[in-house]
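Two proteins, back to back. First:
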Amino acid sequence: MPALATADLSLAQAHAIVEAAQAKAVELGTNMDIAVVDAGANLKAFVRMDGAWIGSIDIAMKKARTARYFDMPTGDIGGLSQPGGPLFNIEHSNGGLITFPGGLPLKVDGQIVGAIGVSGSSVEDDHAVATAGASALS
């Protein structure tokens, strides 16, 4: 039986993702916590910008892990986890998930290699900064 080929995120890629996300946060005039996890949902890179909320450290890491655990944007999971939704109460699984925007899977050649999670401003800004980070892999 052939072994599975698993793609992963390099440290250089993780740094490029953080740099792109940080540049977008500066452009938006906000301070962010930015977490990048690898294919196994392990923390690969993290930045807490000067002045970013301490409480957002955990949120950024959980957003990244949530996006990788389910290979979808955290905002999409949030839509499915509303009362009456198919994933209602999922945020209580896996040691706690974050189900609002700011977490995105990271892909190279269509294959998921990790995820980014961003927290520290509005969910719209969090999502924009995460999107900028993810675009560093394009």
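And the second protein:
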Amino acid sequence: MHCEGTLRQAVPASGIGLHSGTPVNIRLLPAPSGTGIQFRRTDLEGFVVEANSANIAKVSYATSLMKKGVFISTTEHLLSALIGLGVDNVVVEIDNLEVPILDGSGQPFVEMIEAAGRKSQQRARRYLKILAPLEMNEGGKFIGVYPADSYRVSYEINFPHPAIGKQEFELEITPESYRNELAPARTFGFLADVEAMRRQGLIRGGSMENAVVLSPDGVVNGELRFADEFVRHKTLDLIGDLALLGHPLLGYVRANRAGHALHTALVKKLLSDPSRWTLVTLAARQAEQVSATV
């Protein structure tokens, strides 16, 4: 039976915030069953901000959480790695307002989780199983979620840039597939956008070390980790944003040029309509499948 999981021991990391440019220290801590993913601001007397739909803040170039005015920014890569590797319960101690960007991918967080070790807990994991489709369109962007017996995602992007163009990617999400196919994919940005974004107070911590950087002609800072690294990173972001559902998903998610705002809009709209989903354990789901074949 699939049970909830946490970490075996605490593990730290330090870096800078991609948008704030401020130094930040984090520590991932084991947590009891039922805790979920919680951020604890150690610089604000341990104030807790839960990673759930109720705390979704304004979303533009990152997915942020806010509770009673306390902010946690750029959560998506860490949330993605936790969900991807099956960590249900964890406390993230953090001493500033933004999760460190590290190398711009989920890989450093995967390495942290593996260094800490994963520990099975006694409570059966509850999955959010999709019962009926939900689709959302906004300004040429699309996202939909459909019934399925596993967690599967497909993503399509189309950028008018010679290094990107149209890319499509599909994957069934398991710890192994996440680790190998998604975690190393880095965030990316365009040199032409840097000054405008910095005037908006964004990417103050961005550098050639924490993003794939593109000139009009191509990638300017080394080799890609995958030929389609760009769409893989968008898929990684999607997994992180859907972590705000509060439970691992049993469903098929299809996205086309969606982005953080539409990802999190889907989370809110889905949770607001309980007729489209139910919570199941793996044992209950297997029993349903057996009875259906008898």
